[in-house]
Amino acid sequence: MTQYSDDRVQDQQPGLEHEMSPPPEYMPRYPGSGRLEGRVALITGGDSGIGRAAAVLFAREGAKVAFLYLDEDDDARETLEAVRAEGADCIAIRGDVGDKPCCFDAVARVVGEWGRLDVLVNNAAEQHGQDAFEDVSEEQIAATFRTNIFGQMFMVQAALPHMGEGAAIVATTSVTAYRGEDLLIDYSATKGAILSFIRAMAHKLAPRGIRVNGVAPGPIWTPLIPASFPPEKVERFGKSSTLGRPGQPNEVAPAILFLSCRDSSFMTGHVLHPDGGEATAD
């Protein structure tokens, strides 16, 4: 069994994939079938983790892919190369989703390059583990909310003028929205807010033919994990799930693909749960 015992604790959020050991698995497992042929997708947090896995899978399914990342240039370069290796056009955009003008600039760049936007995947997030809630600073709360939920709202506001009937928005929430997590109280709260945002926007956009759904992953082996927890916590990561292990980014990306393409054309306001059974674990 793989040992998740990376002792190189990272001191920045959202973490660096190229420093992880073992490396996350992000490559798609199956040949593409053209489910996103001719579509244009923008993925936030696409440099690593779930975002990278979704970007490469979207490329394999025929999409043009743009992704927004914070400052992880080496990881972004690897994602860019992996997407292009699938034969897809790709744009990597450096910026902070918590900054509203950045979100609008990113969308403008995508539309300027390809003339349309069909799929928005709101995936970027940060989390900061704290044993005592009393030690969670106002600055940490503000940063976590700005990235995790403000950023999703800003991206939707920027994207909507360019999205038409048949477009899809997919948001990454978390198992912590359902179970909570005592080390990640502010993070869990943002993920609960995202869940409500998904449901509200699904009703709001249904008359326009735009579907809004989400995924609630966890526990998934991404850069957020060594960037958030001490080595002893990392070593136990995922073992509480019903399947007894953490998941990989390429085990979440197919759920995002499903919600982004016409396979899910009669679904909106729903959340899929690639979580190894953790949401129902005792």
UniProtKB/TrEMBL annotation:
<keyword id="KW-0560">Oxidoreductase</keyword>
<feature type="compositionally biased region" description="Basic and acidic residues">
    <location>
        <begin position="1"/>
        <end position="20"/>
    </location>
</feature>
<dbReference type="GO" id="GO:0016614">
    <property type="term" value="F:oxidoreductase activity, acting on CH-OH group of donors"/>
</dbReference>
<dbReference type="InterPro" id="IPR002347">
    <property type="entry name" value="SDR_fam"/>
</dbReference>
<comment type="similarity">
    <text>Belongs to the short-chain dehydrogenases/reductases (SDR) family.</text>
</comment>
<dbReference type="Pfam" id="PF13561">
    <property type="entry name" value="adh_short_C2"/>
</dbReference>
<protein>
    <submittedName>
        <fullName>General stress protein 39</fullName>
        <ecNumber>1.-.-.-</ecNumber>
    </submittedName>
</protein>
<feature type="region of interest" description="Disordered">
    <location>
        <begin position="1"/>
        <end position="31"/>
    </location>
</feature>
<dbReference type="InterPro" id="IPR036291">
    <property type="entry name" value="NAD(P)-bd_dom_sf"/>
</dbReference>
<dbReference type="InterPro" id="IPR020904">
    <property type="entry name" value="Sc_DH/Rdtase_CS"/>
</dbReference>
